Amino acid sequence: MILDFEKPIKDFEARILELHRLAGSNEGLQEEISRLEAALESAKKRIYSHLTPYQRVQVARHPERPGFREYRDALADDFYELSGDRLGADDPAVRGGLARIGGHPVVLLGHDKGTDVKARVASNFGMAHPEGYRKAGRLYALAERFGVPVVALVDTPGAAPARGAEERGQAWAISADLMALARVPVPVVAVVVGEGGSGGALAMCLADHVSMLENSYLSVIAPEACASIIFRDPSRAAEAAEAMKITARDLLAHGIVDDVLPEPLGGAHNEPEAATTVVARAVEGSLSRLTKMEPKALVKARYERYRRMGAHLEAGEIGAENGAAGGISMEHPEGNAPVR
């Protein structure tokens, strides 16, 4: 699959490949190849350094982008998968189990979009049903029972938008996961590796440390759906994505996530191994830091982290806190609940 803005890059790559086939020992062609390779590198830097928010959404959705299985293999020294929600079904859109990451025993879970057409259909393209989120809740309970950290890999367009899912308690399953993550007295690390759609993503990323890959996004709604609601025109998705501030850097600037992980030039789908290595190092670093904290301190810090989000001070309080020339603080005064 070639994205529209990637076509100049693919044209360069095709010309270079053809010249390599024809070149042999021809010095003239070798010089032309070197010139085209330099132009290719320049084009990659120019294009991927200036992606629009909607172009980043397109990269996050790329079908060749590494998924749960690739990250699992890069992260875990061993992995024992656990299936089923213990209430009646298993959802392949959510996979998880016990693993060891950098010497730390953990519960590892994430969304699985599948690697081919058959697997993608079976996993509903990563859109989990209630059974998937109940499976996640079961894994959170295991993490608490064994006293091991939770590591979650988020990559979903959102929870399954189906009538059957709602009838079987989709909203209840997700809200139960949120309560479990808010209270679990173990470190919780989440990485958004692709799409982070709505409650389907939030059910796995209420965490002590949230990272995002450079070309991932996290949003309450897809840009196309937002454009359909706000503008009555889904073709204005690019405009909606710009206004929504859903990219990794936007969310970092607003204090929603903790860091942005760089992707290889050209996106994770062009160099999957490099992307999985970056994620593995980031997760190991977060685990090393968080496992030193006491359980009560973890839960308290997690609570305070999410209470701060969206908080602001009234105009008079800003002056009192920061002076006439001061900046706006994200902390609210003692006893004054944040305004949302």
Overview of this protein structure:
This protein is an alpha/beta fold. The protein has 2 domains: 4-50; 58-303, 2-enoyl-CoA Hydratase, Chain A, domain 1 (Alpha-Beta Complex). The protein has helices at 7-23, 27-48, 53-60, 68-75, 117-122, 130-146, 163-167, 170-183, 198-205, 223-230, 237-244, 248-253, 272-290, 295-308, 315-322, and strands at 78-81, 94-101, 104-111, 150-156, 188-197, 209-213, 217-219, 259-261. Strand 5 (188-197), helix 9 (198-205) and strand 6 form a beta-alpha-beta unit. The chain is globular.
CATH class of the largest domain: Alpha Beta
Please, how many domains?
A: 2
Question: What fraction of residues sit in β-strands?
Answer: 5-15%
How far apart the termini lie comes to 41 Å
Described by its quaternary structure, the protein is single chain
Q: What's the SSE pattern?
A: HHHHEEEHHEHHEHEEHHHEHHH
Number of helices: 15
How many beta-strand runs? 8
Secondary-structure-based class equals alpha/beta
Helix content range: 40-55%
- Shape estimate: globular
Biggest β-sheet, characterized? 8 strands, mixed
- For this structure, the CATH topology of the largest domain is 2-enoyl-CoA Hydratase, Chain A, domain 1
- Give Rg in angstroms: 22 Å
Low-confidence regions? 318-340
CATH fourth-tier homologous superfamily of the largest domain: 2-enoyl-CoA Hydratase, Chain A, domain 1
